[in-house]
Amino acid sequence: MDKPRVDELVSSAVVELNKQLRRSERLEKSPATVITGEGAQLDSLGLINLLVITEQKVEREFGVSVTLADALAQDANHLHTLGTLSDYLYSVLEKKASLPSTITTDARPPSHAT
After folding, report:
1. What is the SS3 string spanning the chain?
2. 73, exposed or middle or buried, with CB in 10 Å at 0-12, 13-18, 19+?
3. What is the tens place of the pLDDT at every residue in 49-74?
4. How many Å apart are CA 41 and CA 13, to the nearest integer?
5. Domains along the sequence of the chain with CATH
6. 44-62 helix and 82-98 helix, angle to the nearest 10 degrees
7. The model scores a pTM over 0.90
8. Is pLDDT above 60 for 107?
9. How far apart are CA 109 and CA 32, in angstroms?
10. In whole angstroms, what is the distance from residue 106 CA to residue 83 CA?
11. Rg of the chain in Å (alpha carbons)
C-alpha cells in the first residue's frame, strides 16, 4: 500500500460526502481543508459521515477494518485537515499491515502426548 493510494481514497470519500451536502457546504479536495477544530468546514454530523464513508472505503479497498473516530479520542489533530486525516489513516494501515496474522488455517485441535 502506498500513500498516494490512501490520499486518493480520502479524496473519493470527500466526493461521496459532497454529494450529500448543499453546494455551500461542500468540501474542497485539498490536504489543507480543515475538518475539525477552529475553522472546520464540517459540523459534527458531516465529520461522522466523512469518517464512516472513509472507513467503508478502506474496508472495500484494503480488506481492513479501521475506526477513525478513535483518532479524536487520542489526538484531535489527527483529523484537523484532510491531509492529517490521510496521514493518520496511512499510519494506521501501515501498523495493521505489519501485524502478524492471527488467523490460522489448521483447525485441528492440539495433540496431547501421553
Report:
1. CCHHHHHHHHHHHHHHHHCCCCHHHCCCCCCCCECCCCCCCCCHHHHHHHHHHHHHHHHHHHCCCCCCCHHHHHCHHHHCEHHHHHHHHHHHHHHHHHCCCCCCCCCCCCCCCC
2. exposed
3. 999 999 999 999 999 999 998 887 78
4. 15
5. 3-98 (1.10.1200)
6. 40
7. no
8. no
9. 53
10. 42
11. 18
**Three cell numbers at 100?**
502478524
Residue 78 is predicted with a pLDDT of: 85
Q: Please tell me the distance from the alpha carbon of residue 27 to that of residue 24, in angstroms, as a whole number.
A: 9
Determine contact, residues 68/13, Cβ cutoff 8 Å. no
Which grid cell is 33? 481543508
Q: Are 40 and 34 in contact (CB under 8 A)?
A: yes
Q: Which amino acid is at 3?
A: K
Q: What cell was used for 82? A: 484532510
